[in-house]
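idk why but the lab printer keeps eating my pages so im just putting this in chat instead. protein + zinc ion:
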Amino acid sequence: MTSLVRDLINTVHGAGDTSHSVDAHMQKVLDQLAQLHGQAIENLDAAQARVQPSPADAVSALLRAQGRTHSPESLIPSVKSEDRSIPGVNGTLEIRIYTPEGKGPFPVVVYFHGGGWVIADKDTYDAGARGMSESAAAIVVSVDYRRAPEHRFPTAWNDAIAAYDWVTTNALALNGDPERVALAGESAGGNLAVATAIAARNRGTNKAVGVLAIYPVAQTGNTATQSYDDSAHARPLNKAMIAWFLDKLVTSPADKADTRLDLINADLVGLPPVTIINAEIDPLRSDGEMLEMALKEAGVDVTRKVYTGVTHEFFGMAAVVPKAQDAVEFAGAQLKRVFNGAVLADAGHTRAAHAGAQPRARLEPKDPGAARLKAIGYAAKHSFSDLKPFKFERQAARADEIEIDVLFCGVCHSDIHQIKNEWSNTVYPCVPGHEVVGRVTRIGSTVTRHAVGDLVGVGCMIDSCRQCEPCLAGDENYCEGPNSWLATYNGPMIPAAKAPGGKNTYGRDNTFGGYSNVLVVQEDFALKIPANLRPEVAAPILCAGVTTYSPMKHWGVKPGDRVGIIGFGGLGDMAAKIALAMGAEVTLFTTTKEKLAEAGRLGAKAVLESDKQAFEAHEGKFDFILSTIPKKHDINPYIPLLKRDKTLCVVGALEPMEGVNNQIVAFHRKNVAGSLIGSLQDTQEILDFCAQHDIGPDIELIDIDQINEAVKRAIDGEVRFRSVINMASIAPDDPNATVEDSAIFVVE
Ligand SMILES: [Zn+2]
Ligand SMILES: [Zn+2]
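predcted complex ->
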């Protein structure tokens, strides 16, 4: 499906983008660091690793080379610092206290440096802590907690709590305000900051008013994240170093599951506002994203900013990297915000109201007295978690609705986009599925289109406003009602938060889709499955079929036309079969050699995307081109292939695309267009058309417990075969199913 239009612009991390370009200022620091000839620490022992040149050393060297001052005090003269020893859990801890200009009492930040719990100290991380003192106008207390391997997990966590307690107890003596104490940290220290906030919340006294986590370690169990992958060999932090740190830190693998390390699985409810700062070129970038998601889902006020072109450790480089200066100022502004919030709380306002914490609204059933259906589905609770069994309730069919037993549900690429929150609009828990074929089990009192026992299909929509101009014109998929159409899962296309006046005309902000045993749908939004179409084959036609058919119908593809299809995955396969059945001459463009022969078997021609000669030979030959690639890609090479006045339509990618060269568009008055699924009428037409021409997607049937594998396969390649879940494999009483919180969700 679909989801889409709403916050596409909001995407902060380029999914799948592995070509990061380095900021020019950042590059100078990296070059300088290389010239200091440090050894790769993963080949050293801890003592040797601790004396290797650090990024902070590179910044100093660069400043010297530029003839600039490099002493911390002269770089930020408004902040004074003083070193002290304080009592710890076992002996003393060394701290550095940074005090800004002014008369105080100041708010206080307890800060933990990075270094993987093994290397580095408050000197290495002086610049970031000092800068923060200035930008937040706060006292910053930087703590030298004990390090591994001499002191393994959880010594540093205990030291962090001891230091935090000392600061809250002694804040007044430091000219600080004990009511306004926040936690901050970089990298390993970012983890300590969040973990300490959790410990303080658990205890209920001296709670922190906010947390700043700069490229934190949020988990260590999963090193197959996107950033571990795309920044595996980044500098100054790489994947091998993190493994080396962990080896020194933990005593047994079980430590990694301890929620002090594994923050994303910790109980995060009730934490104060959290700000996360990430660097794009950093194996820990995805950790930041996962933590953001987990905090959001716990109802915590969280803000995350990703700085592009910079690496791990950039925060302390403000003297030479402007983006670091920006990050230090941003950190200061965020800290000031929580400190001000604490003031308001003291003045009798509620902090939550000030900070804008908005736990996701719970759903109210439209009719609390109505009967409910027990349902079981497979849900993702986070963008990074697998789909797992999940029990919930649906509101039973109202007068104009029908209930169906789900027989089959296709696995569409947009399910995956949505599970992974790649359109930044996913509502969790997320039960995907919008290629549903099922049997009607009950009908509402006014239903006329369907009878009990009918075989019906449900695509991306289960309702629309039915009053707007597009709806009245039969273009429900372009509904312009206040919440647009109601998606089969994930709720209205325009959620209340984005709708005029905060309205939600459907009365629900989440819907649960077809990866479940039962579904309830408005009768008009259930399509008839023709008798001679196998139900499992019909399922993907409800999305992949109509998504490719609708634009071909709209732009009038007719017998004899030359149609180009870009991409030969699930959508491309459907598009080719439909175009061929329409009598068109079809050429497929693919990156994969093996698919040339597959195209031939369908009766289509095929061209390798890399074949420049073939492209030249096809110039000005096509009546219509459909791009089915499910992510952003360059369409410029294809535009010259169109005839004058003809159209290239993109249906696979629902995200910002690179620019179009208007020279090639303008010269022959060509059109570049987009199209979103199709209307109810289009959907019924393509079901009937496929039955009539005996075509359909190539499918493989899977059981529901194979869904996570199927998702991985679809991500890994241009899978032409559509996975379709045989829903008979779901166990209505799965003992492993989770139930959402204490209250059961009612979604329909
Ligand atoms: Zn779909
Ligand atoms: Zn409408």
